[in-house]
Amino acid sequence: MTTYRTILMGFGNVGRAVANLWLQRGAQIEREHDISLRFVMVADRSGAALDPGGLDLPRLLEVKAATGAVAAYPGAELGLGGAEAISHIEADLLLEASPTSVRTGEPGLSHIRAAMSHGMHVVNANKGPLVVAYHDLMRLARAENVAFLNSATVAAPIPALDIARYSLHGAQVESIEAVPNGTTNYILTLMEEGRSLDDGIRAAQQAGIAETDPSLDVDGWDSAAKIIILANTLMGGSVRLDDVSVQGIRSVGADELRDLRRRGQALKLLATVRRDGDELSLSVAPARLPLDHPLAILRGSGMGILFHTDLLGDLCVTVTGDDSPFGTAQAMLRDVVNIGR
Amino acid sequence: MTTYRTILMGFGNVGRAVANLWLQRGAQIEREHDISLRFVMVADRSGAALDPGGLDLPRLLEVKAATGAVAAYPGAELGLGGAEAISHIEADLLLEASPTSVRTGEPGLSHIRAAMSHGMHVVNANKGPLVVAYHDLMRLARAENVAFLNSATVAAPIPALDIARYSLHGAQVESIEAVPNGTTNYILTLMEEGRSLDDGIRAAQQAGIAETDPSLDVDGWDSAAKIIILANTLMGGSVRLDDVSVQGIRSVGADELRDLRRRGQALKLLATVRRDGDELSLSVAPARLPLDHPLAILRGSGMGILFHTDLLGDLCVTVTGDDSPFGTAQAMLRDVVNIGR
After folding, report:
1. Residue A259 half-sphere exposure, CB side, CA atoms within 13 Å?
2. Would the N or C end of chain B have less CB density within 10 A of its end CB?
3. A318/B contact by beta carbon, under 8 A
């Protein structure tokens, strides 16, 4: 049994889902894959809970639910600086799930650099660091001889990065079309049924799908981050946020959506990347798709990615019916299992 | 660089596609994955070409194209018995691509056993041995400490077995719906456009999609073999051909298909497996699907697999536009690359 002494940065929806999923399925993963996690540090903005012998996860979840703060865990250190703390902990693995900034990549970027520099593997759910510094981080991981896996960053239940890693050898991805943001797809689905954009946003917030500030989703930035990660991972790109033409769904009208459907089309917030000579061309924008397009049939919070390849035809992976953060948590745990391979 | 001394059994569409793909993309795979293949034996029904230093693949392809027989390769041994020959060759890897029998599993079953018993890894494109002896072969592979990978056996361009291996840790598959046979889907698509079953079969044969004897596809046996492999691999099953209720498409009428589509449904040859208490329940039969079902939109030789999971929602993988045997060949090469992990 390999036991990873584990640091979990971020204890919001994703971080707590990782803890809960480990409590539910950890024994199964230990049995089937000879891998175990010992959580030696869990941190949020309030502070860090620390225990080299392993934190009491049920108690930590209770404390967080009751107070909203990891700092209320017995013996926790208040406001401990993230990267600084990582540098001083004996650990083997960082699970990075702190809040995303696609502009600066922080604070996750510093967490990841600190962890790699101290010889830790990194399993990352945070898009920001990849959008800002994908190739730098890949180089650092190689130099430090640590694993750096990011399945949770791109429409997590869809094994897009696993497919890149394990299933496309010898084949080339020519272009990608994706509906990688479930929140906007949920809102567009409600708008097709006659609701306004603002109504759709409120409903998505009530369903726990949209954040309090929905602009990351609604204005297309989350989709842009994901198509950048796909372009850099699957198509050899070296693309940043300024290279993507980004338009969200604020200009879309409910009438337009219903008219389109009557004419046999669906409007989706589509993220695309294609080769354009030696360059990659990326965009995020509302797009009209015929109803028999595999991304057009996605309703509710469904997501999908369509890979156009040279050897394998058009490979499409979709997911529907996953509105919980467990899909993201599972993506992190499957990366942990795959580190050893 | 790891060089596998390789035996290729079967030099029909799939075997030749493997040789051609290696000629086209082998250098790329060597560069990216530090893995190489040296073909020391290639055999078909006529005989075996042998060279411990590595066969001349372009010449072998020419000879096969000109004469239809590997036996015409310079120095080839005539009618060399498959399993017997494998036992006497110094090799590290068997690529099994000989003709399938889902009833007996032979000759592939004997090839695979001989290879494993002599310490060779096996990458297999042949459904028959898995349908007849899945668990026996898995046990033998573990006992001999060799890899046994089968990506090419289930709708090859779809990374179904890769997803099981690398992407579902901690999650459970509750049921599977699949359209795993492109030939019948191609015929049904033509029938929707008004062609008869016999016309559809002839068109599929002319397009190189259907075999001369189309019954394996048309009567549902190919689909049955694939859903058995999925059930045994992803759902812990121990299922054989007699456990599957199998109905093909011979009773389907073109009028029925067109009527259904007018009523917003599509008819597909659907293979399913679901849990039924402690047992698995499997069937292959024509089924009516609503037009927004992710398998209903598959046209032509498209294939798809829909996994209903407990943690990740409904995950659907489809492929369209791959009518060549290169998808199957690529599945074999990706398994070779993944052996090392």
Report:
1. 5
2. N
3. yes
A81 and A206, same domain (yes or no): no
Provide the CATH number for the domain around residue B148: 3.40.50.720
CB proximity A294 to B under 8 Å: yes
pLDDT of residue A277: 86
Q: Is the pTM of this model over 0.90?
A: yes
Same domain, B61 and B126: yes
Interface test with B, best of A31, A32, A169 (most B CBs within 10 A): A169
Give the catalytic positions of A in this structure: 226
Q: Are residue A185 and residue A48 in the same domain, yes or no?
A: no
Q: Is residue B268 among the annotated active site residues?
A: no
**B240 in contact with A, Cβ within 8 Å:** no
Distance CA A173, CA A227 (A): 13
The answer to whether A234 touches A307, Cβ cutoff 8 Å, is yes
Q: Is there a contact between B40 and B52 (Cβ–Cβ < 8 Å)?
A: yes
Which pLDDT tens digit goes with each residue over A35-88? 999 999 999 999 999 999 999 999 999 999 999 999 999 999 887 678 989 999
DSSP β-ladder status, B2-9 and A265-276 = unpaired
pLDDT of residue B61: 98
Residue A320 to residue B333, Cβ atoms within 8 A? no
Are B220 and B190 found together in one domain?
Answer: yes
Render pLDDT for B231-253 as a digit per residue (tens, 0 to 9).
999 999 999 999 999 999 999 99
**What range does the domain containing B50 cover?**
2-156+325-339
User: Are residues B259 and B334 both part of a single domain?
Assistant: no
